[in-house]
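Input record (one chain):
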Amino acid sequence: MHRCRYRSFPLSRVNLAAITTILVTFFLFLSPIVAAPITASDSEMQPAHSAPSQPPIRITMFSDYPPFTVLDALGRPSGILVDIWQAWGRQVGRRIEFQTVSWPSTLKSIKQGKADIHSGLFASEDRSEWLSYSQPLYELKSYLYRRKGSLPTALGQIAGERIAVVGNTFQETWLKKNYPDITLSTHNGVKEMLIALMEEEVDALVGEHPTTEHLALQLGFASRIQTSGPPLLSNTLHGAVLKENTALQKKMRDGFDALDQQTLYTIEKLWVDDPERRFFHPQTASVELSPEEKRWISDHPIIRLGVDPNWAPYEYVGENGTYLGMASDYVRLLNERLGLSMQIVPDLTWSEVIQAGKQRRLDIFPAVTRNRDRERFMTFSQPYISLSWMIVTRAEDAAAVSGVDSLSGWKTAVVRDYTSHKRMEYDAPDVPLLIQQSTLDALKAVSSGKARAAVVSLGVSTVLIHGHNLSSLRVASPAFDAKDHLSFAVRSDWPTLVTLINRGLATISKEEHQRIYHKWIAVPIEHGIDERTVIFWGIIGTLLTSLIVGLFLFWNRRLQREVSVRRKIEGRLRRARFEAEAANQAKGDFLATMSHEIRTPMNVVVGMSDVLLDTPLNQDQKLYIQKLQHAGTTLLELINNILDLSKIEAGHLDLSPSTINPTEIAHQVISVMTVQAEEKGLELHIRIDEGVPIQVEGDGTRLRQVLLNLIGNAVKFTDKGRITLTLNQDKTEREKLHFQVQDTGMGIGPENLESIFDAFTQADAGITRRFGGTGLGLSISRQLASRMGGLLWVESEPGVGSTFHLTVTMPLVEQSDTTNDQTNTPSERERTAGFTTDDTSCLNILLAEDSEDNQLLIKTYLKRTPHQLTIFSDGREAVSHFKTHADRIDLILMDIQMPIMDGYSAVRAIRFWEREQIRTPIPIYALTAHALSGDREKSLEAGCNDHLTKPIKKSVLLNLLAQHTAQRDR
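The corresponding structure, as predicted from the sequence alone:
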């Protein structure tokens, strides 16, 4: 429930004139608004034919009567009676104004003519003397409620017990008349009674369903109360007007006669969960479905629902296993409108729900946020619930808060890694943050004084404040505009169900969304100032001269405008920075996903084509396999280029300098490209000037990458003639090396000499069609040259040829007998040239890999070797097997992304067990599609010996096993 409480604040003599001026303005212009009761009109929802000259019909209602009347976070009336009277107003074509007051004031308002209609009350002999009633609007049953676990004693057997009841109600009169021996404890409302029952101040309470159970849900007491026996009494609510107002009596009754049953049922079901306790009954209504959709629904009679059992008010499971919360209302609506049968699978924690979703033991999840991991096995509907972030303070601080700008210097609690945490860092850098692990921790930090405010989710915090009796806290103000969104998530292989859910969600009206929201979330917000303070200082302010008032108002408003503009600009800048970083993170997440998801199947494509080339093939078959292998290699090259470009743009591409020999790198590049050049009949030459240093400090891998790209392009675009690689040392700067790649190819026009270095750009479209490629290689090469302290440019003449110039800065290294030159490592062909399966002995290899295709590939690689392979599809099984058979395992190949337990966790578990058992660490190699910057470091940090990236060639794997065989047999 929402209450407005007015609080005063101290004033100093120094700013007396300023504050007086403000208060004068408030008193003269705003005090009627401050003093007026909270009202809400339905003018925006009336039919076009309503007469604008007619005054609104004033309807008075009890402000604390959920779910019949509740106030939302902005003080607007909502609830079953509000919705019914709004529907009535549309039927009769009149505007409505709601007056929400205390219960005794509702009757006074009718008697005194301040209101025209009472929203709903019981008929009685006393009231019938001066009121006329409408048809029954709702049937209410009153029950005796006790604490869970107490004996279900009937009223006639509890003489002397303390029974709570709301004062001045029909129930109080009835109890006094029928049970005079009962000790009654009168209260101002149902909420007050529930708290008294929980604190054992009373033994039981008499309350109406659904008001009592609705408030118990909001307070977190639903699982702690129970009804004791059948209903005590049953009565019906009626609208009521003064007897002498015969015209309004007729209009009231005619309007309700015209309301259809389906409208009333639709209103009620959004507020009352239990179908057995509803007053209205449904009419058949559904979404028009295609024959294919009907067939799909028929083929799937039960859809298994995965829910979070402890996430009130968004979704949770009640004491008796009933699915409750905002999401449950949407599930019920979709079941009715689409003809679905979504049923929860009980007794699962949220972690178990997610795991069951991955294994497709659950089909749909009604209230989840979207993230990268879930997108691997879920497809998401349109969002349908927004999560608002609010500022919560202690009661005495609430009046001073109007937004995050009010929190400057206040220690503010936020939950780690929530959206509120990140937004506060960017939108309010001057607010010191206290990082907490949960919403409850953040609220308790404010309650205990460790923090002065907290930025938390509106719905969850409301339940926790009431459920944990944090009565000193108030929801003071919205924090910022950004919201999270909940969607339905469907197993990825059921696209038809996603389409059905979106169609069903599209039929839910704005009013139905609002009813669901207000049903589950009603929040007390503290705001405003004390009216008595306004009046007092307003009187003083009238004694000041108008000149002082005018001058102050002029300069104060001017200053406020300037401050407001500056704050808006600063806020936009912070928001833009936040959005840019979020977009960059999203791009990184997409690239990581793309890399992994493409590399995994490409491991099989490239690997199996490699295996096929070792089998007897005719010429045509061999050509087809080579084309397949070339296409796979080209795709991987594209992936690597895109990742490199992304890392360069983000500033995350780090060089790995070591001692290298540039001459050997140049010879290696020529050696690699010789085969391609010979296939086209091209001559490939290398010239290295004397004086080129033998040892320099540089990144040999990146240098080799640039040279391979330049020579590869020269081979691609040269049909006849020769290609020459020249290396010399700059005469003025000894640390600068100058590479030149000269060809006799087609050449480049002067208008394209610079554009060819732009990403995704080639000289013209004909080149792309003829030669292929993406235009990324030169762009990446130029940026790598810049990172290596040099330049990349081209000189060219069409029809004559091109010369690409590359300069790099690499400090000289004193020569020594031994170096750690990466280029001294033999090539793949050299490393495997002397290897045959005959000179190896058997290794027992444990493979943890969830992809059946990749399992088959590794099996095929080892088919003609003596090695023994044991395969498990998840990390947990692999760890368990290793612990049992550690003495018989020689080496582990560990995939990283697996269900149940990922590769990182599995490796850590193995290393921990080895330390406990004081065992020699077994060689573990990460064999994964994770190929981004930092992935290798993650594998090594987890305890792997090395990080092998998919796709892995057969020769590389066999060479690795040969090395371990040699080491083991020494």
